[in-house]
Amino acid sequence: MYASRSRLRAMQLKEDLTLIQKGNRSIQEYLHAVKALADEIALIDHPISDDDLTLYILHGLGSDFREIAAPIRAREKSLNLQELHDLLVGHDSYLRRMESITQQLVASANYINCKNLFGNSFQKNQKPNGFSRNQGPHRENRYNNKPFDWPNTTQKRY
Question: What are 64-85's pLDDT values in tens digits?
Answer without folding.
Answer: 899 999 999 999 998 999 999 9
